[in-house]
Write a structure and sequence with these properties.
Largest interface: A-B, 49 and 47 residues
Oligomer: heterodimer
CATH topology of chain B: Alkaline Phosphatase, subunit A
Number of strands of chain A: 4
Structural class of chain A: mainly alpha
Strand content of chain A: under 5%
Structural class of chain B: alpha/beta
Helix content of chain A: 40-55%
Number of strands of chain B: 12
Order of helices and strands of chain A: HHHHHHHHHHHHHEEEEHHHHHHHHH
Distance between the termini of chain A: 25 Å
Largest sheet of chain A: 2 strands, antiparallel
CATH class of chain B: Alpha Beta
Order of helices and strands of chain B: HHEHEHEEHEHHEEHHHEHEEEEHH
Shape of chain A: globular
Strand order of the largest sheet of chain A: 1-2
Radius of gyration of chain A: 25 Å
């Protein structure tokens, strides 16, 4: 129950918020003001919300210097926090029964969610955490789809986290090869339809001689390659699967209006045939040459010569990462995260240009947005509503604790419709007010205020606090 | 019992005495005028074994391929309940036979998705968005129906009795997900609550949603005082599914403009030991049938303008597997219940269960796209205009003429 003091507090908090949002002195568009309003705004956008005393701490350091530190995640001191992270995740198999495997997968997801929430609340490397959330969501995989959960801890740790302030092409490549993505978007099942005939040809010799391995990739050999194609027997691998190719173009790189056709989708899918998962349920990427369509492909006007094998996929990723539509799509999404639901065209254009100039250096792309006049514009602090994840974490941070009850937080996220790792569609969770400003959701936020933020419930229940 | 009009009138008086503008009551009053069309959508998550729910007992292949889990022919010990000389209901679904006999229950068999996926996740997504094969659809088809306009705005026009907003109701149009009517309230004292309401009302972005929430809470509170007593003879199972249906009936009977309601029935994915006339699936089917029977009894005269529609992401393989269960299949059966339903019939072309008749040699073929059923309900029951149907079901041209509603 919220106390009666809440309403009194509420209005005083509102008054403070109004003052905080008041017009600030004009500033040099490239310089960064150090006043409390600017610092509070930067903390709201670049962290999971200010803790008590954060505004003053950043002011002492200087906002420009603090932003620089956040852009270099090795710099903020996390020594007191790092040892509290869970060290190991549950085993990845093999398991005696499907039930056992499911239990292990659930435990892995719960532990991973707890670690993510702990980092979001307590890590000093806040911008990195914000970007891990952003990029995981951009390259979303869903823990509820089959084996995806088993691959999740490694996916976040190895494919996402190391690259969030690195090169886009590296991030793209790491997700493309990861079993979590290969499984989630079905690419591991995608085979050249002609591969089935080749597999039969391999099986044919019955004179007791082993099948001929000629033309196969030396590291895999006939048997492994054949087993991929033999998935046929289970009725699951019936040929080309366009799922990954389509989402790669639409969601990961070019964007839905990025200028590709159905023909491109098929060509990209052909290029990625044979990109599969090492058996049995192993953790690694494997290229299965026998499942691969070795012919020539034409992707967005670029010809990929026949015989490229595993390099076909890499070549497609190169083409996509360098495409102007990708620069624009990524610039738009980042500007939407950091500035407003409908970001100003000038900002998007400048950010996309920065993406191209720097060969997709995400640190410089984020810097371009954060140091922009649009980021510090007068109307900016009102322009974003927190997602449930941002609400829940910022409520805990507002209360000043760094030993959060992550189980309570995870439950709150389920109630608010944004459980970690459980977004089914590849689009990821939406980042606009339209999705999250719902009647039921706001009532739930108000009701969760006390549970999440204790004595700070009054602050957390205000409309102002729903903004980021 | 209150009449709707009386509730609206007395509620308005109460609001006036509190000095609040009764805009929500005006809307509720508007919504309460005329006939209310109600759709209750029920998702059987996990893929129900439709061949054991609505048994094709006239098929020899059914018995040949399911030696340990088949439901016996009608007339035998614990046999199926005969529907039309070829199909029969699982015997635990006896609570639904009165609805069949009064032609308020119909079945659409061999229905499902044109997409061949056997992934629960993909198939549920395709069914809830009604865009099979397209994963990037942002909103659900029921939300797109709500967006298409239609009836007067009510804060309680669409509800899901579920912890999360189901995909099918996600989207721009307002809808409400609640665990139970009792839980949907701001847990704070009156003064605090009013303080919050005022603070939020001044907010241009958050204001409307919060006003809707407070409207809905007041409406529910005024219309659902005290603990709920279902109509005599309506006995809901004490399962989550039964309780969810009871909440829906409660809101429907409160006369607050409910048009779309959604509930889930879970745990249908039985790869191991699913059982036949008894066992795991039988228990789930009993829960389903008892819940639906209680709901229809409880709705009383409202059933005349209500369609209850069940769906499940795909069917299960025709043959039982090596562990006494069934693996993921393709075609399935949907149930439709209510006054507007032309019941007492099994709809859809039956493709047969012989190997050459089966989908990919193993599953029930789909002869009726689930969107045929959805779009017919949207058009003929909910009254969605033809222009709206193209937006609700993008890329789909209904063949029409199913005639189940």
């Amino acid at each position: 129950m919220l106390t009666r003091r809440l309403s009194a507090l509420l209005f005083s908090v509102l008054a403070v918020a109004v003052v905080a949002a008041a017009p600030r002195a004009t500033q040099d568009p490239t310089g960064v003001s150090n006043d409390a309003g600017a610092v509070r705004h930067a903390l709201n956008r670049l962290t999971f919300g200010p803790r008590p005393g954060d505004v003053e701490r950043v002011q002492r350091l200087g906002l420009a210097e603090w932003i620089d530190q956040q852009l270099e995640p090795a710099r903020p001191d996390d020594r007191t926090f790092a040892p509290r992270l869970p060290r190991a995740f549950p085993q990845t198999g093999p398991f005696d029964s499907p039930q056992q495997a499911r239990r292990a997968a659930r435990a892995a997801v719960d532990d991973l969610a707890a670690a993510r929430l702990l980092r979001a609340v307590a890590s000093e490397r806040q911008l990195e955490e914000v970007l891990v959330d952003f990029w995981f969501n951009h390259f979303n995989v869903f823990a509820g789809k089959g084996r995806t959960a088993m691959y999740l801890p490694d996916y976040e740790r190895e494919a996402i986290r190391p690259h969030v302030l690195g090169r886009f092409r590296d991030l793209l490549g790491a997700t493309a090869r990861h079993p979590a993505m290969l499984f989630y978007l079905d690419n591991w099942l995608s085979v050249d339809p002609a591969a089935i005939r080749r597999a039969e040809a391999l099986r044919r010799p019955r004179s007791g001689q082993p099948p001929v391995a000629g033309g196969l990739h030396p590291s895999t050999g006939a048997r492994g390659a054949l087993s991929v194609v033999e998935g046929q027997a289970s009725g699951r691998r019936r040929g080309l699967n366009e799922n990954y190719a389509r989402e790669l173009l639409e969601l990961h790189t070019l964007g839905v209006d990025g200028g590709y056709t159905q023909r491109d989708v098929v060509e990209v899918a052909r290029a990625f045939t044979g990109w599969t998962i090492a058996p049995p349920a192993g953790p690694g990427f494997r290229f299965a040459p026998l499942a691969h369509d070795g012919g020539e492909k034409v992707v967005l006007g670029h010809t990929i010569a026949a015989g490229g094998a595993v390099q076909d996929g890499e070549r497609v990723l190169d083409i996509l990462a360098a495409h102007p539509s990708t620069a624009r799509h990524i610039a738009t999404k980042l500007a939407r995260r950091f500035v407003s639901d409908d970001p100003p065209e000038a900002l998007v254009a400048r950010t996309a240009a920065r993406f191209r100039e720097t060969d997709g250096d995400l640190r410089e792309v984020v810097r371009a947005i954060v140091m922009s006049p649009e980021f510090f514009a007068r109307e900016a602090p009102q322009a974003k509503v927190k997602t449930p994840l941002e609400f829940v974490v910022s409520a805990v941070r507002a209360a000043g604790t760094d030993v959060p009850d992550t189980a309570v937080m995870a439950r709150a996220l389920r109630q608010l419709g944004m459980p970690l790792y459980m977004c089914a569609p590849p689009t990821g969770y939406d980042d606009t007010a339209e999705t999250w400003v719902t009647s039921g959701g706001l009532v739930t936020r108000i009701n969760l205020a006390r549970q999440l933020a204790g004595s700070q419930a009054a602050l957390v229940a205000t409309p102002e606090f729903q903004r980021r | 019992m209150y009449s709707r009009r009386l509730f609206v009138k007395s509620g308005a008086m109460a609001m006036l005495s509190l000095g609040c503008a009764p805009s929500f009551l005006a809307r509720a009053a508007e919504a309460a005028e005329g006939r209310r069309r109600l759709l209750i959508a029920i998702f059987q998550r996990g893929a129900v074994d439709g061949l054991n729910m609505v048994v094709p007992y006239g098929e020899a292949e059914y018995y040949r391929l399911r030696p340990s889990i088949a439901v016996p022919r009608p007339g035998r010990d614990q046999g199926a309940i005969d529907l039309d000389g070829f199909f029969g209901l699982h015997p635990v679904m006896a609570p639904l036979t009165p609805l069949w006999n009064t032609r308020s229950l119909a079945v659409v068999h061999a229905s499902g998705s044109p997409d061949a996926t056997r992934s629960h996740f993909d198939a549920q997504d395709y069914m809830e968005t009604a865009t099979p094969g397209v994963k990037s659809t942002r909103d659900g088809w029921l939300n797109r129906y709500l967006q298409s306009g239609g009836s007067a705005r009510s804060p309680l026009r669409a509800i899901a009795v579920a912890r999360q907003m189901p995909r099918t109701l996600q989207g721009r149009a307002p809808s409400l997900a609640l665990g139970a009517v009792e839980e949907f309230r701001v847990r704070a004292g009156g003064q605090t609550r009013r303080g919050l309401e005022t603070a939020f009302a001044a907010d241009t972005v958050l204001g409307p949603a919060v006003s809707d929430a407070f409207d809905a809470m007041r409406t529910l509170q005024a219309a659902t005082t005290g603990s709920y007593r279902p109509a005599p003879g309506a006995s809901y199972p004490r399962s989550p599914f039964g309780q969810a249906l009871q909440e829906i009936a409660r809101v429907a009977k409160a006369g607050v403009g409910l048009e779309i309601a959604f509930a889930e029935s879970g745990s249908w994915d039985h790869h191991v030991n699913e059982g036949g006339v008894t066992g795991q699936v039988a228990n789930r089917l009993a829960d389903l049938a008892e819940g639906l029977a209680a709901l229809t009894t409880d709705l009383g005269e409202l059933l005349a303008d209500t369609v209850v529609m069940t769906m499940s992401e795909f069917g299960r393989a025709v043959a039982e597997n090596g562990s006494g269960g069934t693996d993921h299949g393709h075609g399935n059966a949907m149930l439709l219940i209510g006054g507007p339903v032309r019941g007492g019939r099994v709809y859809g072309r039956w493709p047969g269960l012989r190997e050459d008749q089966r989908f990919e040699g193993r599953d029930l073929e789909v002869t009726t796209d689930f969107r045929e059923v959805f779009s017919e309900v949207a058009a003929r029951h909910l009254g969605a205009p033809a222009a709206a149907l193209a937006r609700i079901f993008p890329g789909f041209m209904a063949r029409g003429g199913l005639g189940v509603v």
